[in-house]
Amino acid sequence: MTTTVLPRVNYLNVRTTVASWMLTKDHKRIGVMYLVVVALAFFLGSIMAAGVRIELTTPQGDFVSADTYNRMFTMHAVFMVFFVLIPVVPAILGNFAMPLMIGAKDVAFPTLNLMSWYIFVIGFLFTVAAMVLGGVDTGWTFYTPYSSNASTSNVLLAGLGIFITGFSSILTGLNFMVTIHRMRAPGMTWFRLPLFVWAIYATSLVMILGTPVVAITLFMVVLERAFGFGIFDPRLGGDPVLFQHLFWFYSHPAVYIMILPPMGVISEVIACFSRKNVFGYSFVAFSSLAIAVFGFLVWAHHLFVSGISPYSAMIFSFLSFAVAIPSAVKTFNWTATLYKGAIWWRAPIMWVFGFLGLFLVGGLTGLFLASLGLDVHLHDTYFVVAHFHYIMVGGAIMGFFAGLHYWWPKMTGRMYSNSMAMLAALLVFVGFNLTFFPQFILGYLGMPRRYHVYPEEFQVLNVLSSAGASILAVGYTLIALYLVYSLFRGEEAGANPWLATGLEWKTESPPSPHNFPETPIVNEGAYEYSKREIKVA
Amino acid sequence: MAGHISPKRVYYTIFGALMVLTATTLAVAFINLGALNFPIALGIAITKATLVILFFMHLKYSSRLTKLVCGSAFFFLIVLFGLTLSDYLSRGWSTAPGGFTTGAGTRVTIGPATAEPAEGAPEAPAGAEY
């Protein structure tokens, strides 16, 4: 194979031994290492999803048993939530790009950063072990008493895996916060920070404040299972709903861990590809913080039908509606940024358009579910499944791919095929809608989630959904193919293929091990595109 | 990272205060204060934790940013407890328009008081419970 050799020393070729990767403290290499593990988790989670969709093509349970089905959807969610969605943007793109974007040589605690990766991998291996030994059947939410005394599956192993991974999340959040406070280049004031950095900051806040709670909660389940403590057992004076409170105190804000960093990516990409300053910079920046804080006040909207006090439910319903405000601020500001912009049709902006449409649907259907009366009808139906996939896949994963396509030339020094990437974005968008839009209707018609059989009248919509899932699979496979291909045969990207303004584009691609030849000095805002010539290729 | 050096006197004073508070916790445990048992024990514990954070962990001498970080952690702890309690404390409240009868037999109504049914008035039809 003929490969063009990139002529200079960069972070990828400075040393190439396995040990040089395994012991690296370079934030860029650690970002790439996260990419490898997360891709593996995404693959495992996708296999489980494929099993679920195959089973649901027919109304009868003819592919797997009810018990196997429970284990499949649980493992799908456990991998996707804890090992894909939560780390995907902060740990991969945050690690790679954030220090570059603020003009730093590395994160504040490079060794801790490497340790976070190892902790993540150890947690991942525990969870893989739980899957190999037969999986978990409780649902990813580990509700008691399913998880405490009813389940005979590997709850302990999976719980331990997630518990361990939580520390990786806390340490990464801590590392990023300190980095953003202490390592900014001269002149990089808070209001010159790229919005991606603001989003990472807000996310770190949630990681540090929320993750300990879920770790303790899962630990309590372990105590309950192993020693019969009775914290969640009414026979011993406990309360199963307490588990739900504690679990969602983290797991609802965790949704914002998943969506805030992609929102930051969207701000970067939208400014670059409409060649405009982001409309309402400070509003977009502060709405990230507002989402992070408000996100902690809404968790009990998952509990409306769990027997909580109706008065409490009213408070939570109101607060849930309130989160729509900062989310809408962002969406409107992005749209205003596009308005009268010189849109440059390249792959990253395609993913952004996908994000905008899907996040809008996902966000607005969230308001349906926050309504006390309607939630009684829609709770635990496919409507909910469709809603959160619109946020998590339509929002977070589309946002991640926007970022990956945006920073890929910086990460690897090479360009992928733009037309292939546009095609993949289109395939994923179409496949996604075909998969999940029918689920809104199914849920509205009353099909409950987490069953492997269903009445025959739901078959058409389920077959549509499964067909959409196979289009999604083709789209994701295509991405993997052209990105890997670009590593070997891609054109050299050059330092700034998008003619973008951020500091990360002022250094070479791929960057040298210490990022910048000398510390950059910042003397303008993050998105001064109006000062630059547009050269649309 | 300007390390503050407190005089030994401060450490001894705080240590003394912590010991006194520990003794108080122990002493209070032998007195039944009814509903106040729990709040008093927690109050003493919070005072002790505050002393440790302020003096032993040097929060009192730290930057405003450090104080903000510490304060926000407690803010979110209050959110966790407060909003969870909003469920537990109001769970027994009825939403039935006609009120309800507690286990002790007390009639509780919400909204304008309605007259008690007159003696000999017909019983409510079966199945009309809210």
What would you note in describing this structure?
The complex is a heterodimer of chains A (537) and B (130). Chain A is mainly alpha-helical and 537 residues long. Chain A is 66% helix and 0% strand. In chain A, helix 8 packs across helix 13 (382-412). Chain A is globular, with a radius of gyration of 23 Å. Chain A starts with 17 loop residues before the first helix and ends in a 48-residue tail after the last helix. In chain B, strand 1 and strand 2 form a beta hairpin. Chain B is flat and about 60 Å long. At the A-B interface, helix 8 and helix 10 of A face helix 3 of B.
CATH superfamily of the domain at 27-349 and 501-530 in chain A: Cytochrome c oxidase-like, subunit I domain
Radius of gyration of chain A: 23 Å
Neighbour order of strands in the largest sheet of chain B: 1-2
Q: Please provide the count of β strands of chain A.
A: 0
Could you state the oligomeric state of the chains shown? heterodimer
- The name of the CATH topology of the domain at 27-349 and 501-530 in chain A is Cytochrome C Oxidase, Chain A
List the helices and strands and how they pair.
The complex is a heterodimer of chains A (537) and B (130).
Chain A: H1 18-22, H2 27-55, H3 66-101, H4 110-132, H5 146-150, H6 155-182, H7 195-227, H8 240-273, H9 281-294, H10 310-338, H11 347-370, H12 372-378, H13 382-412, H14 418-445, H15 459-489
Chain B: H1 8-29, H2 37-56, H3 64-90, E1 100-101, E2 107-108
Antiparallel strand pairs in B: 1-2
Helix pairs in contact in B: 1-2
What key attributes describe this structure?
heterodimer, A: 537 residues, mainly alpha, Cytochrome C Oxidase, Chain A, 0% strand, B: 130 residues, 2 domains, 3 helices
